[in-house]
Specification:
The chain is an alpha+beta fold. Helices cover 53% and strands 12% of the residues. The protein has a single domain, classed as 3-Layer(aba) Sandwich (Glutaredoxin). The strands form 2 sheets. The protein has a 4-stranded mixed beta sheet, sandwiched between helices. Strands 3-4 form a two-stranded antiparallel ribbon. A hairpin with a 3-residue loop joins strand 5 and strand 6.
Length: 215
Amino acid sequence: MKEKLKIDIVSDVVCPWCTIGYKRLEKAISELGLQDQVEIEWQPFELNPHMPAEGQNVQEHIAEKYGSTLEQQKESQEHMAEAGAELGFTFDYFDDMRMSNTLEAHILLEYAKAFGKQTELKMRLTTAFFSERKDVSKRDVLKEALLDIGLNAEEALAKLDSDDARYEVKTKEAYWQNMGVKSVPTIVFNRKSAVTGAQPVDVFKQVLSELTAEA
């Protein structure tokens, strides 16, 4: 039995291009029939590690962080909504949308890994944030997501008060940043080569075909 192709996806739950990038990668894997030959692991990256608990209005946040005007933001959001729709994902942007702190979401993604449900939880949280107008820093929202995918919510939420669990996420974030990851999504293949950004499906197909042919 040949070894699976290991794919690390460094991303954040509230990163729209991470969602688009993953959905395109997923489509490439599916079109090549490689579902049984790849193993995906999600790696933590906080776009806004200093985001306060109450979050910040998305429009204000983007203007502050990237200097984007409201017009530019609307254009970008329309572009993302179109890209999402092509992949069966809904981006529902609204004026009062708030950027969330995602540290606790990342702790739960580490927890879900042990049960083989990391991708399921990742997509559940991303959908909650972008499609259902939910704040993924709130514990009741996190609890609902855990229950939706059949995980033990009580056990998982207990991790959120563990210093060790926080340290583990911060250590992983530091590892990937030290490896040169400055933007997300960064998709790493067998810890040897990487693709950044939400590349087109064909680019992912080419990379996957080359790597599986080598294997």
